[in-house]
């Protein structure tokens, strides 16, 4: 891969800490995430940076921020243009001070709110906030949200940008390509093989769902991925709630499903059995998949 390498030992992202979702009704959304994932409500507050009222939930180790616009700002702009959906992503770092210094050195503007660094620019369509890495005891019925998918015009340029500003390690990256789903790109794994957390950066082709999304919205966040020990349990809950989902093509039963955006307030969610995503993330030996399982992503 042709990226500009950076020296080791610099501040890095340790995990995908949270997702941010613009919704019309935070109470309704919170109830659904609780019913489906066992998510628990942690806080009600507001963000001046986002221009939003916010309900924060925890599911597994991860946070889900439900946003409704409170006035002018990014949340209102998103809602006016797209309605509901996945707005932004939050990443944890071992030293917020060191990460701030790195952003300064790379001339990346940010705003500090409640100790978090909100990047003021999203040249590749991924609004991002950086927070101090604080361990959490998992709650509910999932492990964590480990991926956001970021379709862009040039995956190499986007990967180079994220590598430079966040201090990511090129040696951890895993190239990806899917003829079935119509994309190629890279997984910017933060801490393999200990964690799956990453940004999936893609260039789309072929007129499939992700390509149609990109042609409509341009650079943006397309979906997120989470893992759970019990995929059939989630399928049963989806059925009981009358929510739409589909099986991933070419996967053994109980390992991989996709929850339709209509079911989760405009957000497409992939669900994989714990560790199964290593099948397409550079370490298929860690996936627990039966021998001969295709590497379709």
From TrEMBL:
PROSITE patterns in alphabetical order: VOC
Superkingdom per UniProt: Bacteria
Domain VOC: 15-148
Keywords tagged on the record: Metal-binding
Any matching Pfam family: Glyoxalase
Entries under PANTHER family matching the protein: METHYLMALONYL-COA EPIMERASE, METHYLMALONYL-COA EPIMERASE, MITOCHONDRIAL
Record's protein name: VOC domain-containing protein
């Amino acid at each position: 891969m042709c990226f500009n390498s950076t020296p080791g030992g610099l501040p890095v992202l340790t995990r995908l800490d949270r997702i941010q979702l613009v919704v019309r009704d935070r109470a309704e959304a919170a109830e659904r995430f609780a019913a489906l994932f066992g998510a628990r409500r942690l806080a009600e507050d507001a963000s001046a940076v986002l221009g939003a009222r916010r309900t924060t939930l925890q599911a597994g180790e991860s946070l889900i921020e439900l946003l409704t616009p409170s006035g002018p700002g990014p949340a209102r702009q998103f809602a006016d243009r797209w309605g509901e959906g996945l707005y932004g992503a939050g990443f944890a770092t071992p030293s917020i001070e060191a990460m701030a210094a790195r952003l300064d050195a790379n001339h990346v503007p940010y705003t500090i709110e409640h100790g978090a660094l909100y990047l003021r620019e999203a040249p590749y369509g991924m609004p991002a906030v950086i927070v101090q890495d604080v361990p959490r005891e998992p709650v509910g019925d999932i492990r964590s949200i480990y991926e956001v998918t970021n379709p862009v015009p040039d995956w190499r340029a986007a990967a180079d940008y994220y590598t430079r500003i966040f201090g990511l390690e090129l040696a951890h990256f895993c190239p990806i390509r899917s003829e079935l789903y119509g994309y190629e790109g890279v997984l910017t794994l933060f801490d393999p093989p200990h964690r799956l957390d990453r940004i999936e950066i893609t260039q789309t082709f072929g007129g499939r769902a992700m390509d149609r999304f990109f042609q409509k919205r341009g650079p943006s966040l397309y979906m997120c991925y989470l893992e759970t020990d019990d995929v059939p349990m989630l399928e049963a809950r989806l059925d009981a709630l009358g929510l739409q989902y589909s099986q991933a093509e070419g996967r053994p039963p109980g390992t991989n499903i996709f929850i339709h955006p209509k079911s989760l307030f405009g957000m497409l969610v992939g669900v994989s059995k714990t560790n199964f995503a290593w099948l397409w993330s550079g370490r298929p030996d860690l996936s627990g998949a039966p021998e001969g399982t295709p590497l379709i992503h």
